[in-house]
Design a protein that fits this description.
The strands form ten sheets. Strands 15-14-16-17-23-22-21-19 form an eight-stranded mixed sheet. With 636 residues, the chain is an alpha+beta fold. The protein has five domains: 1-79, no CATH class; 92-219 and 576-600, von Willebrand factor, type A domain (Rossmann fold); 223-322, Immunoglobulins (Immunoglobulin-like, Sandwich), CATH 2.60.40.10; 325-498, Class I glutamine amidotransferase (GATase) domain (Rossmann fold, 3-Layer(aba) Sandwich); 508-567. β14, α8 (334-341) and β15 (346-349) form a beta-alpha-beta unit. It has 13 helices and 36 strands. The radius of gyration is 39 Å and the shape is elongated.
Length: 636
């Protein structure tokens, strides 16, 4: 027990109340003067006088003893004594609570990881000292402050009771930055992190305070769906499902886990398959789906036996309506138009039949800057230097040669650029380096001796590819790699439009949708809750939170305009892998050896003991005297 805080406590002066309490029992009684008929009573009077004299020892008085003990208990309770835990005390303590998807994993007893954390945090709240303040922060894909710094235990308990798991991956950096911002208003020396250990091992953050890394015991073994995508082949889609399992813990059961995988379309089961998955391994299943129209696919995983996490046993995939790719290519680029005509999945504009334009395109291949105003998701500019690069690079009429290129980038895959002669030579301005192009958002895909030749830029959901040289002034159209390059551009556009390959959407944020400009839409979550979102001036609806797996329905009034299924699909959360050490910029933080212990307050003990003394005093001095008289008469 720590005694010095008691001595310096602001309530220590209450001990002075013992002085008037004792003096009260030393005061002499004022009796009237009376004549007595006998001296036999004189001895009793002398004894009574001796008792009430301040210079004589007063006889034992049980009432005085009880009142002194009661006063001591009340004063000690007011001084808020505590038994120190041995850990450093913090007056302002941020408590970071991991609420990501893996925190819903259960152990063999059916308790989730979040339930275990709540139990530990409640201990901190119950043992909160008068000069301590807690701030609860939820950690998932973003940080959310549950309470301000407060010592109100009711507020803290209500906040921890309302906390639920968000079915998203964990992002610890946001919570640490929020704690850093709170440190500007109150002194924060230590923060506590409660998690199952399923967090990123490396965090790009410089800790300005100490971090107490509290890791709760891991959950049981688990298998789940970690990837879901589909590729189109004519009128058929091949649906790929990947299932992975956790690694076996030391001494745990390493027997394979059997599970059934079922594929449903619009609520109707299309196919199912049984798998057997060993600990730490993965398996891919392929389901062919014969359809050319839109369809809502659902994959259900049904493990046999124990499975720690249920949120990764369900995944959704939305198939788009099959259609050809709309491509705009002016008549001046005949070499590109000739390569495009050989692709049966392409609808070319202007068409050979005279159709000149469409409302929107999936791919634009052009050598004119003005065509950048066309509505499309993918652009391939030929012989065009972007305006925002005019100060970094300029073109000269001189021979250029490709020195190096990214062979794995989608545009240049299987395209051999060796010995390609180019009559336009891009020249970077003096002092300009590759990093200067990256700073304005461009990635260099191919470079020559004096500057970049092929660039890529992605912004606002649009992919722009730039050949700074004009291919008509090079030998590229006569090489085998040219039709491959055009085919690669078509594949990029088809993937961007979701026509060749689509992937299941992950929880966190709904993908952007193009709807009516500046219109308010209602978004209904899987749990039935409804929120409103407004589109931008270009009609883009973005930034809609999707913290739970399931289908989100977008409506305009009573009309449904879109239905989007989102799934967990995260290897890190399904694996339930734990990190024993967090690596920050300049230091690392390891897992604490024991769970955090808080100081144990004793004011409740003293208050309860004082109340018990009060009951004893009431019982002893409020007894009926008849019982005492009967005992005296019986002895007589």
């Amino acid at each position: 027990m720590s005694w010095w805080p008691f001595i310096a406590n602001q309530w220590a002066w209450l001990f002075l109340l013992l002085v008037p309490l004792v003096i009260f029992y030393f005061l002499k009684l004022k009796r009237p003067r009376l004549d007595i008929p006998s001296l036999a009573l004189w001895r009793s009077v002398l004894n009574d006088q001796r008792v009430n004299s301040p210079f004589q020892r007063f006889k034992r008085n049980i009432l005085l003893l009880l009142q002194i003990l009661l006063l001591l208990c009340l004063v000690l309770a007011a001084m808020q004594p505590f038994v120190p835990s041995g850990a450093d005390r913090a007056n302002y303590l941020p408590v970071l609570i991991d609420s990501s998807a893996s925190m819903a994993a259960v152990d063999a007893e059916g308790r989730s990881r979040l339930d275990e954390v709540k139990q530990e945090v409640r201990k901190l709240i119950d043992n909160l000292l008068p000069d301590q303040r807690l701030c609860l922060i939820s950690v998932s894909s973003s940080a959310r402050q549950l309470t301000d710094f407060t010592d109100n235990q009711r507020v803290l308990r209500d906040a921890i009771d309302r906390l639920e798991v968000s079915q998203v991956a964990s992002r610890l950096e946001d919570a640490l930055r929020m704690t850093q911002a709170l440190a500007r208003t109150v002194p924060i020396e230590t923060a506590v992190l409660y998690t199952d250990g399923n967090v990123p091992a490396e965090i790009d953050f410089e800790l300005p305070f100490q971090l107490n890394y509290q890791q709760i015991p891991p959950a049981g073994k688990n298998i789940g769906i970690t990837a879901l995508n589909a590729r189109r082949s004519d009128t058929r889609w091949d649906v790929f499902v990947r299932v992975e399992g956790t690694k076996a813990a030391p001494g745990a059961d390493e027997a394979p886990t059997s599970a059934g995988v079922a594929l449903l379309q619009n609520g109707k089961e299309l196919a199912n398959e049984m798998i057997s998955l060993a600990a730490g391994q993965s398996q891919r299943i392929v389901f062919p789906v014969e359809t050319a129209g839109a369809g809502m696919l659902e994959v259900r995983l049904k493990p046999e036996g124990f499975d720690a996490l249920a949120s990764d046993n369900l995944a959704y995939l939305d198939l788009p309506v099959g259609r050809p790719l709309a491509v705009f290519c002016p008549d001046s680029l005949e070499s590109y138009r000739h390569a495009l005509r050989g692709n049966k999945d392409v609808l070319l504009y202007p068409s050979d039949e005279g159709e000149s334009k469409a409302a929107s395109y999936d791919l634009v291949i052009t050598d004119r800057k003005a065509d950048a105003d066309l509505e499309a998701a993918t652009f391939l500019f030929v012989g065009v230097v972007p305006d925002d690069l005019s100060k970094l690079v300029h073109m000269e009429e001189a021979l250029a040669q490709v020195i190096d290129w990214q062979r794995s980038t989608p545009l240049l895959q299987h395209v051999l650029l060796t010995d390609v002669q180019i009559a336009d030579r891009p020249v970077s301005a003096e002092g300009v380096r590759d990093r200067d192009y990256e700073d304005v958002g461009y990635e260099i895909l191919a470079t020559g001796r004096t500057g970049p030749l092929v660039l890529r830029k992605e912004a606002a959901g649009r992919t722009a590819l730039y050949l700074l040289f004009h291919t008509d002034r090079s030998t590229l159209p006569y090489r085998v790699g040219f039709p491959i390059l055009v085919s690669n551009a078509v594949q990029i556009a088809m993937q961007q439009a979701g026509l060749s390959e689509i992937r299941g959407q992950q929880t966190g944020v709904l993908p952007p949708r193009n709807l009516k400009p500046e219109t308010v839409y209602q978004v209904q979550a899987p749990d039935g809750s409804i929120s409103e979102a407004r589109t931008a001036t270009d009609g883009t609806l973005s930034g809609v939170a999707a913290p739970s797996i399931g289908r989100y329905t977008i409506r305009e009034g009573r009309t449904e305009v879109a239905s989007i299924g989102v799934s967990l699909l995260t290897v890190s959360e399904t694996s339930l892998a734990t990190v024993e050490q967090l690596q920050f910029r300049e230091l690392s933080v390891g897992v604490a050896g024991t769970m955090l212990k808080s100081d144990h307050p004793l004011w409740g003990v003293f208050a309860a003991f004082g109340f018990a003394l009060l009951l004893v005093e009431w019982w002893y001095f409020q007894r009926r005297p008849g019982g005492v008289m009967r005992r005296v008469e019986g002895r007589g």
